[in-house]
Amino acid sequence: MKEILHKYRAKFIAAAVIVAVFAVAVIVLLSLKPQLLSGKPKLILSSPPPLAVSDRNEFTIDVTVSKLPDNLYCAASVAIVFDKNKLEFTGVKQGTMMTYGDKQANGSELTIPTWQGNTETANQTGQINAMYLDMTAGKYAYCAEGFDSENNNVMLRLGFKLRESVYSGEVLDLTVADAVLATVTGDSDGSSLATVNKTLQPVNAKIVVK
Length: 210
Known about the structure:
This protein is α+β, with helices and mostly antiparallel strands. It has helices spanning 2-31, 34-37, 119-125, and strands at residues 42-45, 59-65, 73-81, 87-94, 99-100, 110-111, 116-117, 127-133, 154-162, 171-183, 193-194, 201-203, 205-208.
């Protein structure tokens, strides 16, 4: 009889442990930010490793896309707010996401496009406005073939330097004010991705000064 009781007690304890672990997992998932749980595409500003307060070297922030539905995105833009008194914006850098392009010697018809942005204006206003526009409305558009979530997911990179006014322990925010990946048909069929209509979820970055 004691052996039977011991057996059932062991099973009960094992079951209780499983339930407890499951409950903790649920709590952790529920505590995560909604945008990280959502299946919608995300526009992610990557947070860099902590920077020394004396560091004046340029560092970059990747602007990545978590997934790209199969379509032609002939225009894209981002508006990103930063503290102009603490950070100097040094310019837009090339990413890794590819668009359709002219056929190259290696047979590839994909290319990494160049984004446009005014560095001087950004430093005056504290907002980076950058864009890419395929004037052919499709020939040089972002596409599923030029994207993968591991290597070809960086739409553009943003260069920064810390200003002399930063202090140790400070945390600086980079915030997505607006972002759009527009298709040829735009909003007429709901195929465009945009933060304003929540079809593109923004994930902001923090720059930690140590």
